[in-house]
Give the backbone structure.
Amino acid sequence: MVTTDEIARISVFAALGPAERERLSRAAADLSLVPGEYAADEGGERALFAVLEGRIEAVKLVDGIERVVGERRPGELFGEVPIALGTVFPVGFRAAETSRVMRVEAPDYHAVAAVEPDIAREIGRLARHRMSGSGGLQGIAAEPPPPRAIVVGHRWDASCAELRRFLDRNQITFTWLLPDAPDAAEQWGGSLPDDGDCPTIRVVDGKTVARPELRRVAELLGLPTEATAAKYDVVIIGAGPAGLAAAVHAASEGRRTIVIERAAPGGQAGTSSRIENYLGFPNGVSGEALASRALQQARRLGAEILVTRSVARIDATARQVHLEGGDDVLYADAILLACGVAWRQLSIPGFDRLVGKGISYGAMPSEAPNTHGLDVHIVGAGNSAGQAAMFFAGHAGSVTILCRGESLEKSMSRYLADQLATRPNIRAMNRTEVVAAHGELSLEALDVRNGATDETTRLESGGLFLFIGADAETGWLPPEIALDRHGYVLTGSDVRAAGHWELERDPYLLETSVQGIFAAGDVRSSPVKRVASAVGEGSMAIAFAGQYLKNRETELTAQA
Ligand SMILES: Cc1cc2nc3c(=O)[nH]c(=O)nc-3n(C[C@H](O)[C@H](O)[C@H](O)COP(=O)(O)OP(=O)(O)OC[C@H]3O[C@@H](n4cnc5c(N)ncnc54)[C@H](O)[C@@H]3O)c2cc1C
């Protein structure tokens, strides 16, 4: 309980009369925090806090890295910016040592401020100072974040494109130098690497490596690539929305949890420029932001998340997970398949040669500036194609959606089709298919055929982005895990119906044909392929895994 004497010791409230102090004392929550515990998260709802004991630090996430940007001592406030401006918390506040804080909810603060206008004036003054004073939020936001790496490589070198995409997807800030740019040597700080050594990466204050493998890049940047143990309660394969949601739930339940991801956290969703239908984000959220928050949450709760590691094989009987590129074998009590789907590849003349040189399956938002002023093409008619068109339209000269069907409205959400119609530099060519790609060093033109007239036309193209659907990549799973005829993993009642279940008990809703191995998200045989469903299934799968493990423990105890 916060006493009226303690309230009087907070400078802003010192002049309050006894009745108002009493009112605040009744309304305020008394929070005890252990070191590292957050009183308010960045992006959290507004409230006013005062430090009663200990020390609180203000923390801002910049490029995925937490930076301490201020501190508060007993008698000082935090939360005055969101309270004064009616916004969410622009920075988080966590205990630097064992601390006690009081929290006043916005309506209680406003009730006191209505009676004592001097308090509102003082809070407004403090908020202005926090924004613009020395070390204020304005200064932090204006400070350019230092890049963590410098990459030298040619625009149309597919390995350089892969390296840049990898850095983007892992939210690593980097400077990309084109070897023929006039100031490249100056920015690099010496003579540039030979063409044969490109791409070369230099980690700022670290090593320089020519033509590195992605795993080596991850190691150079300190991204985790090695498991810290050999045995886990739950091994999760894939760090898309399903895998990350599962990691959050498993770790928060105290289970020893590891996620193995072959590329970067976020999965397909991590490449989406704007997800509009995920609950709780009224203005949409970029896949990158969603992935970064989920990753942070999973790690904070104690899950290990490895990147650049693929699962090559599972031994279903021994419950072993074999990682590619080494002898690493992990033993798991329960396994979750959250490995999603991968872009379908087109077999069209010129494509294989030009992938990474102007042709790309999917797209990262960071690729948009490379299309500045160019005429780019998008193949696909689903929402992901529509989102990409909207995004590229802000950079490219024109965006043409090549759609095999009769109209976009048939396959795209109405809100997105309506948004596309408002952009003068976006057009759709219906009943149109790409039949060839041309270019020497990079993509220069496309041949497209009109399905109605059978006429083929050549279009100049500065970039082609393919959003043509995806398939489950489950060929590596052991034969004991039953699949549907398209390669998606069967679960729950579908497993029994297909004759792949022999136990007396029913399989759990998300359990595969092997007990204790679960599947969630896009890899699962189900017509729903969405971020929200992947998140929901990932969370549910952990609840089922928990029940499975509990029953198994009971059986083992009974046998002993
Ligand atoms: C461009 C785009 C835009 C989209 N927009 C929306 C939207 O606005 N709203 C919406 O609801 N949905 C959207 N979706 C669909 C949504 O992103 C997916 O339904 C969702 O990401 C599925 O999540 P998941 O975790 O099941 O699989 P994925 O996101 O596919 O993640 C699976 C992960 O597993 C990894 N992996 C695969 N195999 C292995 C292996 N053997 N070893 C280790 N790791 C492995 C992959 O690298 C990947 O990171 C979009 C999809 C795309 C591509």
